[in-house]
Q: What sequence folds into this?
């Protein structure tokens, strides 16, 4: 259970404060976390032979607001462990009918967005904005399924006049680029389950070089840990990634950056529009004569 190790550490740290029933519950959760991830509080209480109140107290002792928050974290871990065929089987078994697939996908994305709104910490976003504004350069890394998110963040940063570089694949050249970066640089890494080893190693290298790091990932137990972190749920109802909530978080970050220095933003946007008009970037509809 490599992904459960942070949660296990939390329980071990609080072991002395746990009652005998809570210790029994902890053993059951760690031994049957895949089942617990999709069990109601009543089902878990029956399986362990404890009261629902004990489960609530246990969840709070583990550092969560309640059982739903604990279960959501366990569910995130379970889905992070699943491989492509397993994800497909789980999706098909839970929804064998192909009807109303759009509604099911939308419901899951709405659930992710709602959770983002509930758990959003404005101070963390403010710290990220400050770090990006103060960086000599911003390097945005995202590969495979998160490459589009990294490109979108890079494009937005460049458009409002922030010096940025995009990293959409990790190669030896990537390490060369980081090695040339000064300590004033900021590396932003975007990653969600299944977490890519290359991004974990890239973060480690940046820290060794003294480069500040910011991660955009799905939770505090993600192996993608930066000096600063922003969290957005990306729980999927399919074998493909669901990234509406992360995109909303990135757009919020870009908006806050743009209004932090309105004069600079307006200047950068005006330069872009002048160039776009000069080079005819965009299709202009024909003017119909009277």
A:
């Amino acid at each position: 259970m490599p992904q459960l190790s942070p949660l296990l550490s939390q329980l071990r740290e609080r072991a002395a404060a746990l009652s005998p029933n809570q210790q029994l519950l902890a053993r059951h959760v760690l031994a049957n976390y895949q089942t617990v991830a999709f069990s109601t509080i009543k089902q878990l209480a029956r399986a362990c032979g404890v009261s629902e109140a004990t489960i609530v107290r246990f969840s709070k002792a583990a550092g969560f607001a309640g059982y739903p928050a604990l279960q959501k974290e366990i569910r995130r871990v379970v889905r992070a462990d699943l491989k492509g065929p397993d994800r497909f089987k789980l999706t098909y078994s839970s929804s064998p009918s192909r009807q109303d697939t759009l509604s099911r996908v939308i419901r899951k994305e709405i659930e992710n967005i709602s959770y983002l709104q509930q758990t959003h910490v404005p101070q963390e976003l403010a710290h990220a904005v400050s770090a990006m504004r103060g960086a000599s350069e911003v390097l945005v890394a995202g590969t495979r399924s998160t490459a589009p998110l990294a490109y979108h963040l890079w494009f937005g940063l460049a458009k409002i006049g922030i010096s940025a570089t995009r990293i959409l694949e990790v190669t030896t050249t990537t390490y060369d680029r980081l090695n040339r970066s000064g300590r004033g640089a900021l590396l932003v890494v975007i990653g969600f389950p299944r977490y890519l080893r290359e991004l974990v190693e890239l973060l480690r290298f940046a820290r060794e070089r003294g480069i500040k790091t910011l991660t955009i990932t799905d939770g505090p137990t993600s192996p993608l840990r930066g000096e600063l972190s922003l969290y957005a749920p990306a729980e999927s109802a399919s074998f493909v990634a669901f990234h509406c909530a992360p995109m909303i978080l990135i757009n919020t970050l870009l908006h806050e950056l743009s209004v932090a220095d309105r004069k600079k933003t307006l200047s950068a946007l005006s330069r872009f529009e002048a160039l776009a008009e000069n080079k005819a970037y965009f299709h202009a509809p024909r003017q119909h004569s009277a």
Observations:
- The CA atoms of residues 175 and 202 lie 8 Å apart.
